[in-house]
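Anyone up for a design puzzle?
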C-alpha cells in the first residue's frame, strides 16, 4: 500500500468516479460464534494512538462523548496499524474531503451501556419476545460486552472504527441514516438491494448509494473490512476482520486500553 500513500489529484478523481460507480459486493455471512473462535496472535505494535493529530484529513468527532455516555472519551483512539491505513485511505478522498471519525476504541463500560440500553429499548418494542430473542436482535447492532481477551468485542480491541465522510465544505455526505440508527436501512448494502429488487431509486437514494460505495471501496482498498449491518463500521486486525478475510489471516488485536498515567 505504500505506493498509494500520496496520490495525485487526477488519480484521486479517477478513484472517486470508479468507486461511486462500483456496486458493493455481497458480503460473507457473519457467524458470531465462529468469529469469536478465531485465535488472536497479539501484534507487537504500540497499543493505541489518538486519532486527532491529522485534522487536515481526519476529523475527531467522538459521538458517545458528545452524547454524554459514561466512560466515553473526548478523543478517539485506535491501534497504530489501523491509523496508518486510515491515513492512507484519507489520501484517496477528493481534494478537501475528510474522514469524520465517530468512534473507534471503546471501553467495555461503554459497550455494556450501549448493549443494555438497546436491549431495554427492544424489550419495550417487542414485549412478546423472549430474552434470548431480544438478545439476538440486539447483537445485530451492538456486540456483546466482553472482558475475555480470547473473544473481545471488536471495538474493545482498537481494531474497529466508525466513520463517515465530509465534503470540501465540511458537510457530511448523505449516507441515508444517522450513525447508530439501528434499523434495516443501516445495512451497508440496503440501497444496493433495493435497486436490485425494484430497479429504481429516487435521485436522493442514488446519491446515498454512491456515497456508501465511495466509503466502502476506499476503506476496503486500504485493507479494512466492513461490518455488513452498519455502513459506518470498518475493521482491521481483529477477529471480525479475520472472518471477513475468510479466516486466511490471523487476528492480531486482542483487548487494549490507552496508556494513561493518572487514570485506570
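Challenge accepted. My sequence:
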Amino acid at each position: 500500500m505504500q505506493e498509494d500513500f500520496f496520490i495525485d489529484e487526477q488519480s484521486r478523481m479517477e478513484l472517486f468516479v470508479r468507486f461511486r460507480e462500483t456496486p458493493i459486493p455481497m458480503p460473507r455471512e457473519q457467524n458470531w460464534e465462529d468469529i469469536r473462535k478465531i485465535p488472536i496472535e497479539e501484534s507487537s505494535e504500540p497499543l493505541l494512538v489518538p486519532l486527532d493529530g491529522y485534522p487536515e484529513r481526519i476529523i475527531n468527532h467522538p459521538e458517545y462523548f458528545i452524547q454524554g455516555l459514561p466512560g466515553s472519551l473526548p478523543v478517539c483512539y485506535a491501534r497504530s496499524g489501523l491509523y496508518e491505513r486510515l491515513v492512507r485511505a484519507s489520501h484517496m478522498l477528493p481534494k478537501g474531503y475528510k474522514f469524520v471519525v465517530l468512534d473507534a476504541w471503546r471501553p467495555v463500560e461503554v459497550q455494556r451501556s450501549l448493549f443494555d440500553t438497546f436491549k431495554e429499548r427492544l424489550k419495550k418494542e417487542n414485549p412478546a419476545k423472549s430474552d434470548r430473542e431480544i438478545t439476538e436482535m440486539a447483537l445485530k447492532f451492538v456486540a456483546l460486552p466482553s472482558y475475555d481477551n480470547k473473544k473481545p468485542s471488536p471495538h474493545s480491541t482498537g481494531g474497529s472504527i466508525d466513520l463517515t465522510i465530509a465534503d470540501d465544505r465540511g458537510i457530511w455526505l448523505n449516507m441515508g441514516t444517522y450513525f447508530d440508527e439501528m434499523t434495516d436501512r443501516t445495512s451497508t448494502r440496503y440501497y444496493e438491494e433495493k435497486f436490485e429488487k425494484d430497479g429504481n431509486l429516487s435521485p436522493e437514494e442514488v446519491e446515498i448509494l454512491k456515497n456508501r460505495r465511495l466509503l466502502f471501496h476506499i476503506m476496503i482498498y486500504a485493507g479494512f473490512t466492513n461490518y455488513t449491518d452498519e455502513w459506518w463500521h470498518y475493521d482491521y486486525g481483529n477477529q471480525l476482520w479475520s472472518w471477513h478475510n475468510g479466516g486466511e489471516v490471523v487476528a492480531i488485536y486482542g483487548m487494549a486500553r490507552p496508556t494513561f498515567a493518572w487514570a485506570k
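A detail worth pointing out: Residues 84 and 147 are 27 Å apart (CA to CA).
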